[in-house]
What does this fold into?
Amino acid sequence: MNDLDLVIRGGTVATAADVVKCDVGIAGASVVALGRDLPRGKREIDATGKLVLPGGIDSHCHIEQRSAAGIMCADDFYSATVSAAHGGTTTVIPFAAQHRGQSLRQVVKEYHECAGPKAVVDYAFHLIISDPSEQVMGQELPALIADGYTSFKVYLTYDLLKIDDYQMLDVLALARREGAMVMVHAENHDVIRWVSERLLQGGHQAPKFHAISHPRIAEGEATHRAIRLSELLDVPLLVVHVSAEEAIAEIRRAQDRGLRIYGETCPQYLFLTAQDLDRDGMEGAKYCCSPPPRDTRAQEVVWQGLANGTFQVMSSDHAPYRFDETGKLAAGPNASFKKIANGVPGLCARLPLLFSEGVRKGRIDLNQFVALTATNAAKLYGLYPRKGTIAVGADADIAVWDPEREVTLTAEVMHDNVGYTPYEGRTVTGWPETVLSRGRVVIDQGELRAERGSGEFLPCEKPSMAVPRGESVPELDPARNFGAHIAP
Ligand code: URP
Ligand code: ZN
Ligand code: ZN
It folds into this structure.
């Protein structure tokens, strides 16, 4: 056996499949041995009584991204990845977000310039396609997919981002041809617009009306439509940040019919409700995100979806805006709900919240926790098995958890630039104390040890869940393929 640089000794190692008491031997950046009584390493971590888990993958977060309305996220690649690492996450997949008229290639270049010198953990990029022009669809996107940007998000709502169903079909057809994964923000734009206009006409401006303007029906309808469009072209689809029972039912129904439809949810749909948007004054602005948090019944349905496999991924959708004129209040201290930047932070809190409320309370088991927070994202986005598991040959991205440690969540504990957390004052049990990224100790007993810029870019492979490797994708031929959709 190679000399071991580091041995994590005596802990309980959990992956998406197993829970085993064993040591983890690391040489350089990789796991090289799993077993009992491994030889001594140059450095040792005593994990007696601890859980040794794959570092989390946060596959939905917004970092150093400017919103379509021009508001900049509070976190840059340094603060965001520091925050992620403190919460046990060792890979982030934020978005390189195209605004209309922009070259996608140029957008990607600019995000690299932001991330390269700052990230302390590894990162990949999804793309956001808001302008599927001929240049983008014909040249830039296929070339970027070949270069390792193999997933992209499209929006069915937001004035400046939304694509229509025709464009969605174009995007899905391209994804099918190139083997990429499409992520969809599924809410019915015209429903939201229609309700919002009437609320504003009636003088209803407060943050709580944000939730009312994004009805569950709008989410359910758009989810249904997106699934049917993907079914028409027989291409996988991942529905992101799902909050409503109606949408969950659509995803489940599609999965039961054998379609490759995947679902993602986020902590805000487990731990917040629309009531949070009705806090005093503008406080509710902190909780405005889309889709909005719903009610306690919806929370239960989301938990069920995590437990029964409807959801493959639980990411943060970290979309950080400060509660001041640079962020949530950029349109003024009394802005209407329509002018409040959408999004809540969650990079650091994601794993501890799910561990504490999910694993410790018996709603999901440890294997499910690992699958939902790391392994499935690695598989969906072409990073597996390098990331998302603890196995010989995988990157040594590992979080050593004290399953008994109690931590009260505060803005300070989050280590981000946001200045508040929606989970302020909530006490969780279980915390990642020591965190490794490619064998480097990034967090040592809660202390940051990583250098700025030490994170690396990860080009993604074509996701195996999008197109199984080696499977030839039949050409789309309306005369042949779409006949399958004509009812007998
Ligand atoms: O409200 C949210 N989720 N903001 C972030 C952007 C998005 O749609 O994911
Ligand atoms: Zn979205
Ligand atoms: Zn998002």
Remarks:
- The chain has a mean pLDDT of 96.
- The pocket of zinc ion (ligand 2) is lined by residues 185, 240-241 (CB under 6 Å).
- The first strand starts at residue 6 and ends at 9.
